[in-house]
Amino acid sequence: MGLATFKGGIHPYEGKELSENKPIQELLPKGDLVFPMSQHIGAPAKPLVQKGDSVLAGQKIGEAGGFISANVICSVSGKVKAVEPRLMVNGQMVMSVVVENDGLYETIPHFGEERDYRALSKEEIRNIIKEAGIVGLGGAGFPTHVKLTPKDENKIDYILVNGAECEPYLTSDYRLMLEEPEKIVGGLKVILSLFDNAKGVIGIENNKPEGIKKLQELVKDEPRIEVRELLTKYPQGGERSLIYAITGRKVNSSMLPADAGCIVDNVDTVVSIYNAVCLQKPLIRKIITVTGDAIANPQNFKVRLGTNYQELIEAAGGFKTEPEKVISGGPMMGQALFSLDLPVSKTSSALTCFTKDMVAAQAPTACIRCGRCVAACPSHLIPPMMMKAALKNDCEAFEKVNGMECMECGSCTYVCPARRPLTQAFKDLRRQVAANRRKKA
Amino acid sequence: MERLLHVSSSPHVRDTVTTNNIMYDVLIAMIPAAAFGVYQFGLNSLLVIILTMAACVLSEYIYEKAMKRPITIADGSALVTGMILALNMPPEIPVWIPMLGGVFAIIVVKQLYGGLGQNFMNPALAARCFLLLSFSGLMNNFTASGIGFDSVSGATPLAMIRSGESVDLAALVIGRIPGTIGEVSVIALLIGAVYMLVKKVISPRIPLIYIGTVAVFLFLFGGFDPYYVLCEVCSGGLIFGAFFMATDYVTSPITPKGQVVFGILLGLLTGIFRLWGASPEGVSYAIILSNLCVPMIERVTLPKAFGKEGKKA
Fold first, then answer.
1. Contact at 8 Å (CB) between B218 and B232?
2. What is the ipTM of this complex?
3. Which sequence spans correspond to the domains of chain A?
4. Does the beta carbon of B306 lie under 8 angstroms from any beta carbon of chain A?
């Protein structure tokens, strides 16, 4: 049997050599910190502080605004400068708490004190995770306490830790595997204590042999935990691809992983769970890779949430050549930025800065029906048929050719020899169909 | 920031393969067969190849200019059409015939339906069939004085097989036989086919199923004679058609299962035409008839999306 994987996918240039051997550096913020009240999927949080209030690192400054929502935690000590709408990575203006950093990093009581998770009840653990403001740090930002509260917890038989890191250029998860592997295993053990019937599997792509070795050593005496080597292929770390590769189960767009007995959490999320439960540290930091061919000195940073992107670029030596594009995230699914005056949020994972050589815009030409997109699609779709529907803005036809099963991974667009903007069109139409469905409901 | 950053939707990186690369790879893959044709049949073949390609490119240019559309001749698709059409011509054909065919292929079959990617029949083959019907005498004259195929011995191997004569398999494989410029040498064609397979320009799915179906069909209905089947497979442009024309992206199904159906359909039609048709050849007609079925094939072979297998779509 070959390595665990899925059908379809692509092999883009990995670019990880730029930063994979750079140890994580702690970066302390200089300027003001911005905490948007909506850094997750679900209802925005409600600000708990007002202008002029003093705040501490680890203090809750935003209260979850519903069941599917998450708290927002302040990452430094200082004074609240303003509560006002600020620009987010996705281009929206979101109500945010702006904190002036006093540089003292005073924390709330008990911050960083060790705690034995075995002495806690399941209810208490879930509540700690909720209070800590933890969401899916792989990019989706789904509140983790909701994920860990499925309808029937006895039906969950797999806890999958997503260490695929299939997105090119990103190395933050890899560095965590090398530098804090015991926290990954520790966090997984906390999750496993919530699910009596589950087994933990850490899935890692085989382009990270060091990470695999490190974790394998750590779990060799853990009966409930296993490390699984995955074939290096994009989008191996997509939730559906990962579940299929490890368990052989298939999840479609109308299902949750829990429907297939799985809960999937990213490596950094698991580490954050460990920090919150075992070290009493709520989610106030994020590992960010600053990389790309336009960056002077690519690095992996441990940064406080709310830090300005501009500070990260400066800490990585600034631009060595003029960037054409700066992407929040990786080159396959990241968001191109028009401004760097943005805060690090819970779903930030990288700043990838490319020169024109890498990302020059290319004019689309006619589809020649070569079928490369069909071979690449991990959801087994026919992108040209979806594109035909998308160009006519025909939601019905789009759904008929299974357009809603698209996971927007970008593989089709990557391989398209005619440079057609497939993923972009699919994103648009998928939003429309989803909006129409909500209207009907 | 002094300068605005470029913003667009993800993904931000692209593979290096472009439409132009693909078209030029197909052209490169046809060079061995073309070179062998010119070597064997002489200078008129070279003239046919060059002028047919020129006619295709020129008619595309003139049409697009006249219609005020962007000029797309640099993408190489007209060159490919011209090359395929030229390689489908008898060696001593007067050059104006393939040139007329080139104009027909580009203007009528390709551009009138919307240009690259929109035609529902392979332009080169549709033009060949147009020429076969219009100039059947000239199009079926495989005299090649250069190597001693006169009007008597100029019968193609397929015609010989049909009239009960024996053919030399070795000559078939090398290509020392009368036929169109590009279809004769199995070896030269396979070199090109391997090039396209290695470069991942084509998938082996359609050609292998096509050739396999023809072989099985002729074995079952042609008298259970393996030698006969082998001669049939190596002649009459089947190898050329299977690897270079049936695999045309635009006019073959895009769904994986559809490609299987398409290959089988091609094989059945070719077998029927060869055994019972009016002419001993059948590849060209089989391909353009199957081209017409592609939309229907695709409709019934739409794959189930990941995770939706075994459920109603």
1. yes
2. 0.90
3. 114-279, 372-440
4. yes
